[in-house]
Design a protein that fits this description.
Layout lengths: L6 H15 L21 H8 L7 H8 E4 L3 E5 L5 E4 L1 H11 L6 H4 L1 E2 L7 E2 L5 E9 L1 H5 L8 H23 L2 E7 L4 E10 L1 E7 L2 H4 L3 H4 L11 E7 L2 E2 L7 E2 L9 E6 L10 H30 L3 H28 L2 H19 L10 H23 L7 H15 L13 H11 L7 H19 L4 H7 L4 H11 L5 H17 L3 H43 L12 E6 L3 E3 L2 E3 L2 E3 H10 L10 H8 L8 E6 L11 E3 L4 E9 L17 E5 H10 L4 H8 L2
Parallel strand pairs: 12-20
Antiparallel strand pairs: 1-2, 1-6, 2-3, 3-10, 4-9, 5-9, 6-8, 7-8, 9-10, 10-11, 13-14, 13-19, 15-16, 17-18, 18-21, 19-20, 20-21
Helix pairs in contact: 1-12, 7-20, 10-11, 10-13, 10-16, 13-20, 14-19, 14-20, 16-18
Length: 701
Amino acid sequence: MRKSRFATVWASLSLGMAAWLAGGFAVPSLADEGMWTFDNLPLQTLKERYGFEPPAGWADHLRLSAVRFNNGGSGSFVSANGLIMTNHHVGADVLQKISTPERNIYESGFLAETPEQEIAAPDLEINVLVGIKDVTNEVNAAVQPDMDDARAAQARRAAMATLEKKSLEETGLRSDVVTLYQGGRYALYTYKKYTDVRLVFAPEFNIAFFGGDPDNFEYPRYCLDVCFFRAYENGQPAKVEHHLAWSRNGSQDGELVFVAGHPGRTSRQFTVAHLEYLRDHAFPLLLSVLAQREADLKEYSQRGEEQARQAKEDLFGIQNSIKARTGGLKGLQDQALMARKAQEEKALRDAVANDPNLKDYATAWDKIAEAQKVARRVQIDYSLLERGFAFDSQLFNIARGLVRLAEETAKPNEDRLREYRDSNLDSLKLGLFSPAPIYPEFEEFKLARSLRYWYDQVGPNNDLIQQALRGERPEAAAKRLVGGTKLADVAYRKELAEGGRAAIESCVDPMIVLARLVDPAAREVRKIREDQVEGVETANYALIAKARFAQLGDSVYPDATFTLRLAIGTVAGYEVDGQTIPPYTTYEGLFQRADLKGNQPPYVVPSSWIKARDEKRIDLNTPFNFVSTNDIIGGNSGSPVVNCNNEVVGLIFDGNIQSLVLDFVYDDKVARAVSVDSRGILQALKHVYHAANLVRELTGE
């Protein structure tokens, strides 16, 4: 999801939020609030508020039609032949990797007229959720009464790995134990996996992201942010039983609609101390890194057209993250929002203190607060070494992956780092052995800048950086590392992986040597964080969750975890500063906005659209984008919007600027999900791109 300027709009949002939050803890959750797991849907709310009772099989059909992209987005099957719809910006990673200087698909678009013309994605994995099983008792049974939080966390991780391995062996399906309610519940999610995925259609970048960074997270919008892929099995288009029908009529103002997608992460159940850590430390550090990288990527892009092409997707991703995190930080700095959180927390703590059955939970908040002190202490080293802020390089990531693969697979499954468990190895190797292009000049530039950032953070006397740089300046070290490594060769990577620990330990490739050098320190700080921060949080958030369950029952939904959720809502405009924002935009509005902005980047309408307009092939009254009250967040990009008949009426691609508080609290007054209208997509496919075969597959026409 993308975003844009927010200063003046945020001021009005803060006033609106202040009024809404003033009611305190007694204010009930808003009607459309919730990112609901598919085994706990708000059926009573649907019946009471909307008079809708889903027929038998409705939810299962939607669940099995929804897909998850391993690059952090959502999508859905929209034909029986494995056709998948998502956003252009979700597919952008693939579009970038399959583009060349001679054929820039990311920029100019693509249409496969026949299956033979569809282009394979180099490292894309698609997941379909086929099963959910509560394994809370099995995970918690591994914890013994005498264990401290760190040992308890290790025991839970081992139990989760064992459950995942057993499930994988029994079903052959990808198996992930998901932590819900910050440790209040654990569920085994099993997924059917597709790794042969091919590009079918993508529009030009200029129409997919019309308005660019200035209009990101704004509304009204005019974007055809859509992309189609196809899943294959055994070299043939996958035959899928569950797929969504296409609505030719689209949605109506006020209509009930649903979003099935994979929201990434929210923090609505975090304690005040945890939110204060994010506000005062985590977000500011991340934003400082992102700002530096944005400046670096802009500098690199100025070297030439090819350099700009290489950096474009990274730059847009960085700019998107900056704006999203800046908006989140503004939310945490909003006194009304934090006061609401404090009131809610006090009310729950008072309830716990006054209930003899809950008294054992009373210290949970204080223990989480202590854990945030540890998080603050290790923040810099953890971010630099384990999260890789010091090593902005695809080649380094490959090197670290190979070093850890050799180390971890030599251990029992239950003792490994989570990402190297048996149930995840195939997915990990898909990325590790990806044939996607690597650009040495770009790698050297990024690594030099991130090594310089590390050097500036820790100083010249740090032993580890002295060893890493070998007395060189960061720029010279980056040149040596990138120029000397052979890791761009996939065959060489596979050879090292097959050789195991012996091959890695004897390898003199400079990037492998660097990864070996920094890995012990990275593992050490990771262990501190896992044991003294995450372990404490998991144990004590589980107690807080039990207290919430005791007060509210199963009407509580868990924070987002990049797992499949259902969000309900209605198509609805909103009002800001006395101005009414209607729910729909049209094709005509696209051309008007381009004219208003002088038809200059990023407000350039592609020539294909201008030609279609001039030849009167398109209806300028066609709905293009629309907004709804569905509760979404980053990760929902590419989610289908469906009506009560499970027909596609839209495609989520963004939220408005007022939605940036949704990380922490839901709002349906002005926060909105932004979608591409199904009618807008179909009109473009028919009359701009002449994609007759694709239209026929979607609609039967």
